[in-house]
Amino acid sequence: MSGHSKWSTIKRKKGALDQKRGKLFSSVGREITISARLFGGDIETNARLRQAVKKAKSINMPSANIEKAIKKGTGDLDNVTYEEVSYEGYGPNGIAIFIDTITDNKNRTVADVRHVLSKFGGSLGQSGSVAWNFDRMGIILIEESVVDEDKLFNLSIENDAKDFKIEDGYYKLFFDHDILYEKIELIEKIPIEIDSSFIALIPKDFIKVSKDEGEKVEKLIDALDDLDDIQDVYSNYEIEELS
């Protein structure tokens, strides 16, 4: 009996891992597709696509999947059009929730988002209701071993970086999000090897919550993350440390 129970546990865990892997492939695949649709299918001239393909390879996405996602974007395969859509709302304790999606069906996506927010004590807001509390930044990560700190710091100043940090063995360069891929191309031409890059929303102000309240928020964010069309979820909560 215990052997059967153990096997059932293994199957459940494997199923959960496969589901997460499939969700990650789907998310990165949509990013590849929309990058190709917006700026073309050539990774040599499309920095956003180049970074998306690099991410796909880092999670061992098969080459066939990558090529198919690019062809979807360039219109060479399937009659599917993806678009980037953002939603804003509130979670428990009035915390701000900002949700980035890539979808081929906005009606389905907004219904799914509204349902999850409502289920976990949140609500969908109007456009602009929480966006004011976030700065959208483009972030580039470079391993410390790749380049001298002074050289990269000076480079960041010369190229109008908003911030420069060193964390966990990486340099983090912050730029206005709309010039991220321009700066990626510049850094790659030096050449300096970029580990990864992404666009993120940085909260201007945080709402402090208790540990229990924080767990409720995390369940909401996890449930949103599980939706197929979700790319990123941002919030401005911070768990209050007990003195």
Can you describe this structure?
The chain is of the alpha+beta class. It folds into 2 domains: 2-74, Orthogonal Bundle (Arc Repressor Mutant, subunit A), CATH 1.10.10; 83-243, YebC, transcriptional regulation domain (Alpha-Beta Plaits). Helices cover 46% and strands 25% of the residues. It has 7 helices and 10 strands. It has helices spanning 2-39, 47-58, 63-74, 106-119, 149-158, 180-189, 211-225, and strands spanning 83-90, 96-103, 123-124, 134-143, 163-167, 170-176, 196-203, 207-209, 230-235, 237-239. Helix 1 (2-39) runs antiparallel to helix 2 and helix 1 runs parallel beside helix 3 (63-74). The longest helix is centred in the N-terminal third of the chain and has 38 residues, at 2-39. The model is unreliable at 1-14 (pLDDT under 50).
Descriptive terms for the model:
Alpha-Beta Plaits; Arc Repressor Mutant, subunit A; 243 residues; 46% helix; globular; 2 domains; four-stranded antiparallel β-sheet; alpha+beta
For the largest sheet, list the strands in their spatial order: 3-1-2-9
So, the CATH homologous superfamily of the largest domain?
A: YebC, transcriptional regulation domain
Count all strands and give the number.
10
Count of domains? 2
- CATH topology-level fold name of the largest domain: Alpha-Beta Plaits
By DSSP (H or I, 4+ residues per run), the number of helices equals: 7
Percent helix: 40-55%
- Which of globular, elongated, flat, extended, rod-shaped describes the shape? globular
Uncertain regions: pLDDT < 50 for 5+ in a row? 1-14
Average pLDDT = 88
Strand percentage: 15-25%
- Note the run of SSEs as H and E: HHHEEHEEHEEHEEHEE
Give the CA-CA distance, first to last residue.
Answer: 48 Å
Radius of gyration: 20 Å
From the 3D coordinates, which CATH architecture of the largest domain would you assign?
Answer: 2-Layer Sandwich
Structural class: alpha+beta
Sheet with most strands: 4 strands, antiparallel
The CATH class label of the largest domain is: Alpha Beta
